[in-house]
Write a structure and sequence with these properties.
Layout (H helix, E strand, L loop, with lengths): L4 H8 L5 E5 L3 H9 L7 H12 L2 H7 E6 L1 H4 L9 H7 L3 E5 L4 E3 L7 E3 L5 H10 L4 E8 L8 H20 L3 E8 L10 H21 L8 E2 L15 H15 L6 E4 L6 H12 L7 E6 L1 H11 L6 H18 L6 H6 L1
Length: about 350
């Protein structure tokens, strides 16, 4: 594998492949396991993620990289093989979530700024030594009739740029993730508001990245789609695709290595349908692909149920969703394939 960040970034958005976001914090995965009546322990978390990572059909054909939580990056599989090596053996790239979460922004009611810059350079060196070649940092942008404020957008964009610079200095590809919430309070914004806020946010983010000297060919953008609030879902698949592509064309430089969307509160099939519609018939300067967590994992988790006898069932469910999104990344997904594949 090449160690140039431009080549790593290009491999992360290879045709028909995308990213598995398996970077849920210990607190988040505990909630997911509670839904299947499974206790969250170091071993159960390892077993679950190993089940996904050893899904050969999905990993080799559809997954270019895996975003890991720090615990997982340093864990070994049941047979003693480092999980990072399991990922590499499947032809994918190990990555790591490096932010420490969104915290309340001072003097800004309802808004947050993501933390984790202190000591990041030293952590990145450890992650690189453990095999990570890309990282992820999520900035959260609240949206309503009054939010976001310019201060919150700039604070998160500045943090994203500082993080990205530290990553590139360490030889690690940064995934820059400015997420405009669709399910934040009150979640009733229409798609016009979503488009305006997403465009505003991306403009500020790329201004900050430029000021920080970020090499755009060595980064991946992970944006939210332009979609109406969760409590006001009216937009069609075609409208979401059209508006999202328009915003990207207006704001994202052509030299960015690729764009890997988050699924952000959508159902698994919605996220697939929207991605495919964006890719179908559009001539774009960057690859558009997926970086999905729940939209790839939920069916697999429900099929697995924490039982060793259900590993194959969990892997089949994961492989199906991975294949559907691989088709979507090429603009080839259809509802009929969803039902019959």
């Amino acid at each position: 594998m090449s160690e140039r960040i431009e080549d790593i970034a290009k491999a992360m958005v290879a045709e028909g492949k995308g990213l598995l976001a398996a970077d849920e914090s210990t607190a988040t995965i505990k909630k997911r396991f509670e839904a299947i009546d499974l206790e969250s322990t170091e071993t159960s978390r390892r077993d679950y993620r190993e089940m996904l990572l050893r899904s050969e059909a999905a990993m080799k054909n559809c997954i270019s990289g895996v975003i890991l939580y720090e615990e997982t990056l340093f864990q070994n599989a049941a047979d003693g093989t480092p999980l990072a090596e399991v990922i590499r053996a499947a032809g994918a790239i190990p990555g790591i979530k490096v932010d420490t979460g969104a915290k309340p922004l001072a003097l800004a009611s309802g808004e947050t700024v993501t933390e984790g810059l202190d000591g990041l350079a030293e952590r990145l060196a450890r992650y690189y030594a453990a095999g990570a070649r890309f990282a992820k940092w999520r900035g959260v942008i609240a949206i309503s009739d009054r939010l976001p404020t310019a201060n919150a957008v700039k604070a998160n964009a500045h943090a994203l740029a500082r993080y990205a610079a530290l990553c590139q200095q360490a030889g690690i590809v940064p995934i820059v993730e400015p997420e405009v919430l669709m399910d934040g309070e009150p979640g009733t914004h229409d798609i016009d508001r979503s488009e305006a806020v997403t465009e505003q946010t991306l403009r500020v983010v790329f201004n900050e990245l430029a000021d920080a000297g970020i090499k755009l060919e060595g980064m991946i953008l992970k944006p939210s789609m332009v979609i109406d609030g969760k409590k006001q879902r009216k937009a069609s698949v075609a409208e979401v695709a059209e508006r999202t592509v328009r915003v990207l064309k207006n704001t994202v430089p052509a030299s960015v290595a690729g764009i890997a969307f988050l699924s952000g509160g959508q159902s698994a099939e919605e996220a697939t349908a929207h991605l495919s519609a964006m890719n179908a018939g559009n001539s774009l300067p960057w690859a558009l692909t997926f970086s999905y967590g729940r939209a790839l994992q939920d069916d697999a988790l429900k099929a697995w149920k924490g039982e060793s006898g259900n590993v194959e069932a969990g892997q089949r469910a994961f492989a199906h969703r991975a294949r559907m999104n691989s088709l979507a990344a090429r603009g080839l997904w259809t509802a009929e394939q969803e039902r019959t594949a």
